[in-house]
Amino acid sequence: MLKKERHAFIIKQINLHNKVLSADLATALNVSEDTIRRDLMELDDSRQIVKVHGGALSKSFHYPFQHTDIYAVDAKKAIARKAIGLIKSGMMVLTGGGTTVLEMMQALPQNLAVTVFTISPLVALQLADHPLVTVILIGGEFSKDSQVCVGSQVVNYLHEIKFDICFLGTNGISIADGVTDSDLNIVHLKKAMINASNRLVIMCISEKLNSVQRMNVCPLAKVDYLITDLDPDNQVLDDYREKGIQLY
Amino acid sequence: MLKKERHAFIIKQINLHNKVLSADLATALNVSEDTIRRDLMELDDSRQIVKVHGGALSKSFHYPFQHTDIYAVDAKKAIARKAIGLIKSGMMVLTGGGTTVLEMMQALPQNLAVTVFTISPLVALQLADHPLVTVILIGGEFSKDSQVCVGSQVVNYLHEIKFDICFLGTNGISIADGVTDSDLNIVHLKKAMINASNRLVIMCISEKLNSVQRMNVCPLAKVDYLITDLDPDNQVLDDYREKGIQLY
DNA sequence: TATTACTATGCGGTTTTATGCAGGATTCAC
DNA sequence: GTGAATCCTGCATAAAACCGCATAGTAATA
After folding, report:
1. Are A10 and A53 in contact (CB under 8 A)?
2. Same domain, B213 and B243
3. Which positions on chain C have an atom < 7 Å from some protein CB?
4. Are residues A144 and A25 located together in one domain of the fold?
5. B53 closest-nt by C1' vs CA
6. Domain count for chain A
């Protein structure tokens, strides 16, 4: 059998079953696993499949949703870069949804071994191709607006675990009212997430600083770190620094 | 024998078998392999065949594989259309992951008000812009291979609820072995999902019919409906019909 | 017919490719 | 952790491809 034929067969199998195991292919095609491994390598190199330990996965299955445009990407990327510095290997990390968190997870170094709990399916999918991260998706009613899981199920779940650190984006933060949000479900959720974590990181693009939403999430006293796209010494942040919040 | 005759012979062989080996041709035509190689070169240069190491392939063989984004989309769309007919407003629906389910959810009529429980973040996101559907994402460890939530958390959750109908894609179904799959986690999961539902719908593109995977999910007796892209009267399905499975 | 010019073919030697195998390292799953 | 599966690296080998060259065949023409 010619190599190209094997390749065609492999691709067909992957399209059929979304994944293949090297061992299966080796017996099916009656060649050594080394050969299969080399085949998968080549198909991976030519971007036709995604090679993983033990076999390969369909590419189309892996990335069906194209990432839509994100507002203020550069600012969020800057925030993401700083936020990653707070994560150490072995941590139990809790994250909300939001594009800033998404940016952060995309930029997560490949050698970081952490367990990420998240209420956001997008975050889970984003982390799917990270080699060392274990992802636990916290289930519940899926909120169409905010694209995260909400509701009592999530809140109850959060009562049972204690996390090292929690990363949240926010819609409003101000000296007077602390962290605020506009969606009741999200507020419940964030309160539970904050209570479940030893440390709280709020990520906020400078545009949203000092804005107030309808409902209270938590006072500034509970915020351990505030990460913005500004220089941490920027005087806009002076008031927050005085409150004892670590700025990045 | 003239060169032209050889070329004609080679083309004929390739049309017949989709491939030829240089060595075979050399003995069949009683010329040296070098000559054959030169012949194949010329035919390749004139775009009549595709030369590869060891022989040559039909042109159609090489081409179509760049273009497959999602495999067998049309078949899956056909299945999705039929599957939707089984859903009525007010139902509690349980779904697995997989591209067929995804197609189905994409095609879900806007006036259908159902509650969809799913282990697939992709399904949840797909349903996010549906006006009437309530989505419950069942949380757990996120499997990077299969892009769904797996593990004991999910299985436990499924023990507590009874669903009206469960839609599953499958990697293998056959008369002898019933529904089969290749991933242990997925097998556990599917078993729990099947037990949690009053009715089970298996969706399977015809190419996968009568294929067997490593591990058993459930016997055919548990399958209430089998939906394929074939006409339900197709004789390929006769055996399944005799087992008392409803075909669509 | 003989000459010439050109193409096609085969052959020997070399290089490249494909594949399998052994071992040790790595990773995974329980 | 620990054992099993998987992967990587280097190596060996055989098949295939390549290269240059000699020669056989072909065709056109004087």
Report:
1. no
2. yes
3. 8-12, 17-22, 27-28, 30
4. no
5. D16
6. 2
Q: Which chain A residue's Cα is nearest to B70?
A: A60
Examine residue A68 and state whether it is found in any structural domain, yes or no: no
Residues B205 and B152 in one domain: yes
Looking at A62, A92, A109, which one is the last position of a domain?
A: A62
Q: Please answer yes or no on whether A137 and B142 come within 8 Å at the CB atom.
A: yes
CB-proximal positions of chain D, under 7 Å: 5-10, 15-20
CA distance B155 to chain A (A): 13
DSSP string, B166-231: EEEE-SEEETTTEEEES-HHHHHHHHHHHHTEEEEEEE--GGGBTB--SEEEE-GGG--EEE-SS-
Q: Residues B186, B188, B192, B194: is their CA dihedral positive or negative?
A: positive
Of A8, A58, A141, the CB nearest to B134: A141
What are the DSSP E strand ranges found in B4-64?
Answer: 19-21, 49-52, 55-58
Q: B55 and B119 share a domain?
A: no
Instruction: Tell me the pLDDT tens digit for each residue of B120-170.
Output: 999 999 998 899 999 999 999 998 878 899 988 899 999 999 999 999 999
Residues of A in contact with B122 (CB under 8 A): 64-65, 121, 125
DSSP, collapsed to helix, strand or coil, labels residue A219 as coil
pLDDT score recorded for residue B67: 45
B-chain residues near A62 (CB < 8 A): 147
Confirm whether A67 is domain-assigned: no
For residue B222, give its domain range. 73-247
State whether A127 and B142 contact (CB < 8 Å): yes
Give CA–CA dist A19/A11, Å, rounded. Answer: 9
Q: Are residues B114 and B235 in the same domain?
A: yes
Domain boundary among B66, B85, B113: B66
Q: Which residues of A touch B140 (CB under 8 A)?
A: 136-137, 139
Shared domain for A224 and A105, answered yes or no, is yes
Of A61, A65, A149, nearest to B99 by CB-CB distance is A61
Reading chain A (248 residues) residue by residue, the pLDDT tens digits are: 899 999 999 988 888 788 899 999 999 999 999 999 999 999 999 888 889 999 998 876 655 555 556 677 788 888 999 999 999 888 999 999 888 998 898 888 888 889 999 999 999 988 887 878 899 999 999 998 889 999 999 999 999 899 999 999 998 999 999 999 998 989 999 999 999 999 999 999 988 899 999 999 999 999 999 999 999 899 999 999 998 999 99
Within this chain, do residues A88 and A211 fall inside the same structural domain, yes or no? yes
Pairing of strands B140-142, A134-137: antiparallel
Residues contacting residue A231 through CB under 8 Å, at least 6 positions apart = none
Return d(Cα B148, Cα A200) in angstroms, integer.
28
Determine the pLDDT at residue B68: 47
